Amino acid sequence: MLQRKDNRSIEAQTGAAKKEGGVGETVRVVFHALIIALVIRTFLFQPFNIPTGSMIETLLIGDYLFVSKYSYGYSHYSLPLSPPLFSGRIFSSSPERGDIVVFRLPRDDSTDYIKRIIGLPGDRIRVIDGVVQINGLPVKRQRIEDFISDEGGRMARVKRWRETLPNGVSFTTLDLQENGFYDNTPEYLVPPGHYFMMGDNRDNSTDSRVLSQVGYVPLENIVGRAQVIFFSIGEGERAWTFWRWPWSVRWSRLFTIVR
Questions:
Q1: Is the pLDDT of residue 215 over 90?
Q2: Interatomic CA distance for residues 189 and 198, integer angstroms
């Protein structure tokens, strides 16, 4: 009887040890996974989603994309919670005209914006009759077929242009209305170390043309460059309603490169 009791005691201790070991192993795996995810998010890629239509048709409401954190080096905005541990950028490289970037709003650095870089430091930017002028020269643009908008279930045609920047970067822009509010602007002189951002949906974008809200964006405020759309769901749909995915996901946009 004593031997049997001892055996039961040993078995109980062994079971408890295995249980503790299993819990400990699970905690270690979760901890390591969190560390890896944190490193990837901080130094490599961070996911963002598109909540507004300022970059239509390049980016649609409901697009989810990866932004590369390493493209232009790192600022304190690259870190989780953005602690002001240092100023400027480390391993810095300069963005190029035409890049689509995520940046922190200069007047509210808790807010992320995504726009296209139109003006570099020292550039003179102006819009005349809807045509962007860079250093006194109009950006080349060509009228192409209308964009078909389906907002709120109503089909509408929107005038569309293909623009080509001086460095050869080509993309499409939308012209929602003639003589829009920012179709004619004063001349902007981009300060050193700053960039001039514009949305591709020109009449529906609060960008650097609005000095009181966005204005010139410091290099330090740029979080990273938009690289690839990894998921996209129709406007008004919720990403977590997976049972609706067969008809709500924009399958053709998955894993497309952002340009």
A1: yes
A2: 15
pLDDT at 173: 97
- Global confidence as pTM: 0.85
Q: CA angle, 216 as apex, 230 and 64 as ends, to 5°? A: 10
Catalytic residue (one of 54, 78, 205, 232) = 54
Q: How long a stretch of residues is the chain? A: 259
115 noted as active-site residue? yes
Structure tokens at 152: 């709120």
- Please tell me the predicted confidence (pLDDT) of residue 36: 78
pLDDT band for 3, please (50, 70, 90 cuts). very low
Q: Which CATH number fits domain 50-127+188-257: 1.10.10.10, 2.10.109.10, 2.170.150.70, 2.60.120.200?
A: 2.10.109.10
Q: Rounded to 10 degrees, what is the CA torsion of 234, 237, 243, 244?
A: -50
Q: Which of 68, 75, 78, 115 is catalytic?
A: 115
